[in-house]
Amino acid sequence: MKIHSFKTNESGLNRFFGPLEARIMHILWNGPEMAIKDVQVRLAKEQAINFNTVMTVMNRLVDKGVLRKRAEGRISLFQPTQSLEQFLETQSKELTNDLLEEFGPLVVNHMLDALEEADPALIEQLEQKIQALKKER
Amino acid sequence: MKIHSFKTNESGLNRFFGPLEARIMHILWNGPEMAIKDVQVRLAKEQAINFNTVMTVMNRLVDKGVLRKRAEGRISLFQPTQSLEQFLETQSKELTNDLLEEFGPLVVNHMLDALEEADPALIEQLEQKIQALKKER
DNA sequence: CACCTCACACTACCAATTGTAATGTTCGCA
DNA sequence: TGCGAACATTACAATTGGTAGTGTGAGGTG
After folding, report:
1. Hey, are the CB atoms on A96 and B116 less than 8 Å from each other?
2. pLDDT digit string (tens) for A82-92?
3. pLDDT at residue number B72
4. Ramachandran assignment for B12, one of left (phi > 0), alpha (psi -120 to 50 degrees), beta (any other)
5. What pairing do the DSSP bridges indicate for beta strands B5-7 and A5-7?
6. Are residues A56 and A39 in contact, defined by beta-carbon separation less than 8 angstroms?
7. Smallest Cβ distance to B118: which of A101, A122, A125?
8. Which of A9, A127, B41, B99 has the fewest CB atoms within 10 Å, i.e. the most exposed one?
9. Which residues pair with residue B6 across a beta bridge?
10. Which stretches of chain A are DSSP H helices?
11. Taking CB atoms and an 8 Å limit, are B5 and A2 in contact across chains?
12. Distance, angstroms, CA A2 to C1' D6?
């Protein structure tokens, strides 16, 4: 399975995951390989949460392919299948492709506006890349 | 209400709508203001479909703000609140902004690759726009 | 005038997704 | 040898989208 929806009314990891899923991924991405208990304890620091709830969601994340589960004796250790950077890289690439594929020229028109608003320096960066690409040929 | 999610595993209008919703929007965007019956008849040409099913989904689309409903005597006429062009414009803009906001420089790195793959001419177009923007200042 | 039909409203059910949690099972160790 | 921790199984609730039955009201026709 994979991520197949990008939520426009959320932000951060919540764009890709449900709220509990997102908190779990956040923990796993900012720490070492962990057992369910470890995750549950960390979550419980903010909000009491049932162990089984955490287990269910984590196993679902395994089914989705974003977590890897490994048996270590009688406990299971979990870690993301991709680093956060890889994940964002993959997602942003996929979304960029999808956007271009779906909207083509329309998106090009927005890119500059969006870039300027987000960070004008990015426009420079983009131009550099275009120049580099041209030289290549 | 509005569109909250962009599906990466679908294409076309199905990225924004459920399958039946998408077919309904397609019809409404490619024809005049219509009654439920009109839409149902058109849909039924491909697949038998219950009048009430169509009505329910169309009313939900009104709730979501993508259709406008207008009483004409005892029948209701429906039409999109935005033209298809406006809708795609809005969506692509929103998504582009979201993407930049969420990923910033990461997306810039992908844009060229994506552009090149989608249509190399778009890169030209983008460069033109950058030049135009520079002159402006 | 009674009635029938048609358009619409209301309500409900199903499947999938996500959060929640009770109950059941297994296995190591005290 | 039986307890407790970790895991498995199962299920329920809310939400979203597809489906459709039943109820209501208004207009035309016999």
Report:
1. no
2. 999 999 999 99
3. 84
4. left
5. antiparallel
6. no
7. A101
8. A9
9. A6
10. 19-29, 36-44, 51-63, 84-103, 105-118, 120-136
11. no
12. 28
Task: Determine the Cα–Cα distance for residues B7 and A124; give it in Å rounded to an integer.
Answer: 31
Residues of B with CB below 8 A from A133's CB? 112, 116, 123
Closest approach of A27 to chain B, Cα-based (Å): 19
- B75 strand-pairing partners: B72
pLDDT at A136 over 80: no
Residue B1 has pLDDT above 80, yes or no: no
Higher pLDDT, A135 or B39: B39
Q: Is the CB of B36 under 7 A from strand C?
A: yes
A 27-56 → B contacts, CB under 8 A: none
Looking up tokens 């690759």 gives B113
Tokens of residue A82, six digits = 């991709």
- CA separation for the pair B77, A84 (Å, rounded): 49
Per-residue confidence band for A127, with pLDDT thresholds at 50, 70 and 90: confident
Task: Give the mean pLDDT of A72-99.
Answer: 92
Instruction: Protein contacts on strand C: list nucleotides below 7 Å from a Cβ.
Output: 6-12, 17-23, 27-28
Chain segment A14-46, per-residue pLDDT in tens: 999 999 999 999 999 999 999 999 999 999 999
Q: Which amino acid type is present at position B28?
A: L
pLDDT tens-digit profile of B19-74?
A: 999 999 999 999 999 999 999 999 998 888 999 999 999 999 999 999 999 988 88
Q: How confident is the model at residue B81 (pLDDT cuts 50, 70, 90)?
A: very high
Which tokens is B117 given? Answer: 């793959």
Token pair, residue B83, equals 């033209």
With vertex at residue B54, the alpha carbon angle to CA B79 and CA B51, rounded to the nearest 5 degrees, is 120
